[in-house]
Automatic annotation (TrEMBL):
<dbReference type="GO" id="GO:0045505">
    <property type="term" value="F:dynein intermediate chain binding"/>
</dbReference>
<feature type="domain" description="PIH1D1/2/3 CS-like">
    <location>
        <begin position="32"/>
        <end position="127"/>
    </location>
</feature>
<dbReference type="GO" id="GO:0070286">
    <property type="term" value="P:axonemal dynein complex assembly"/>
</dbReference>
<dbReference type="GO" id="GO:0005737">
    <property type="term" value="C:cytoplasm"/>
</dbReference>
<dbReference type="GO" id="GO:0030317">
    <property type="term" value="P:flagellated sperm motility"/>
</dbReference>
<dbReference type="Pfam" id="PF18201">
    <property type="entry name" value="PIH1_CS"/>
</dbReference>
<dbReference type="InterPro" id="IPR041442">
    <property type="entry name" value="PIH1D1/2/3_CS-like"/>
</dbReference>
<dbReference type="InterPro" id="IPR026697">
    <property type="entry name" value="DNAAF6"/>
</dbReference>
<comment type="similarity">
    <text>Belongs to the PIH1 family.</text>
</comment>
<dbReference type="GO" id="GO:0051087">
    <property type="term" value="F:protein-folding chaperone binding"/>
</dbReference>
<protein>
    <submittedName>
        <fullName>PIHD3 protein</fullName>
    </submittedName>
</protein>
Length: 137
């Protein structure tokens, strides 16, 4: 197995570096907030009562990922959120979260809302899937 590099002085190729590692900072003293990952799917009566579409309750049939992040004592204006295809990077003055997502997402079609009374940021991301016998629409 021989890898040809454009520059002879490089010690690794860009393909060998995992996506999202540029956000990882081990020296950052901020703590990681509590978070919860939920999966959401769109079902109709034909799915619930008759099982006609072939969907099941597994994550393989879900269309969206919802991430709820607890951010106590944080204002909406203090939140910096960056979403890539496989990584969510959240930073506030007191908290930092680098989350590798379980599925690739469409980073352009996400929604985020801050629930100030619950001190929670809710991020909804559309899962990018290849079409198969379950996910065909």
């Amino acid at each position: 197995f021989q890898v040809k590099s454009e520059n002879k002085k490089t010690i690794w190729n860009t393909e060998e570096v995992p996506e999202g590692s540029e956000f990882d900072d081990t020296w950052d003293p901020r703590e990681q907030p509590e978070y919860e990952i939920l999966f959401k799917q769109c079902v109709g009566t034909e799915d619930v009562f008759f099982g006609m579409s072939g969907k099941d309750p597994s994550t393989a049939c879900c269309e969206d990922i919802v991430i709820k992040i607890k951010l106590p004592e944080t204002k909406y204006s203090d939140i910096t959120l960056d979403i890539q295809d496989k990584v969510l990077d959240l930073r506030t003055p007191k908290k930092k979260l680098l989350l590798h997502l379980p599925y690739p997402v469409n980073s352009k079609e996400g929604r985020a809302r801050f629930l100030s009374e619950e001190e929670t940021l809710e991020v909804t991301l559309r899962v990018s899937r290849k079409f198969d016998f379950i996910n065909f629409s």
